[in-house]
Amino acid sequence: MKVGTEDTRLVVLRGNSASGKSSVAAGLRERFGRGLALVGQDNLRRVVLRERDRPGAANIGLIDLTARYALDAGYHVVVEGILHADHYGDMLGRLRADHRGRTHAYYLDVPFRETLARHATKPIADDVDEAQLRDWYRPGDLLPGGLETVIGADSGLEETVDRLMTETGLALLPALDR
Predict the structure, then answer these.
(1) What does the alpha-carbon distance between residue 18 and residue 64 come to, in Å, rounded to a whole number?
(2) How many Cβ atoms are within 10 Å of 174's Cβ, its own excluded?
């Protein structure tokens, strides 16, 4: 079933833990203003459902449903999270195929050593140790078909937000008055 309009933008931000996904998503929202919905995997999976990340879990459908609802309501949508390709790839592929507007997918590629350094600055740093991070870490976990643009660790936060605002066309669109 087709979702959104030709004017809506769907942006998918994926990458390992502490790669900068949430910071980039927040930067896009701050720059764009009202009318951009953030659909965060961590919020829907850990906060709303309090669920473990596993294949076929309920959060996968909830992410899809939330993104579709926001697109149909005229919002631009940023779906962000680790979103492992083997768990979320099919859902993201269907969402991309069904979206009437422009869809852009990005993979933030950060080496494990940098992941550790960034993780140390997060509120959950005391709850998640290096062994857990290593277990979660999947280098180059790209979606099939070459649909994602890879952004390396050398791209800073402001540079990445600038790039995405431009490449997605969000920089040219007016914020909604909601």
Answers:
(1) 23
(2) 9
Q: Which tens digit of pLDDT belongs to each residue from 23-60?
A: 999 999 999 999 999 999 999 998 999 999 999 999 99
Q: CATH no. for residue 54?
A: 3.40.50.300
Q: How far is CA 147 from CA 9, 14, 127, in A?
A: 15, 12, 34
Q: Residue 44: which domain range?
A: 9-172
Residue 127 lies in a domain: yes
pLDDT by residue (tens digit) across 115-152?
Answer: 888 877 777 777 888 888 888 899 999 999 999 999 99
Asked if residue 177 is part of any domain, the answer here is no
CA–CA gap between residue 160 and residue 104 (Å, rounded): 14
Q: Which of 123, 122, 125, 88 is nearest to 107 (CA)?
A: 88
Indicate whether 3 belongs to any domain. no
Q: How many domains does the chain have?
A: 1
Residue 68 located in a structural domain: yes
d(C-alpha 116, C-alpha 97), whole Å: 35
In a 13 Å sphere around the CA of 101, the CA atoms on its Cβ side amount to 21
Q: How many CA atoms lie within 13 A of 60 on its CB side?
A: 18
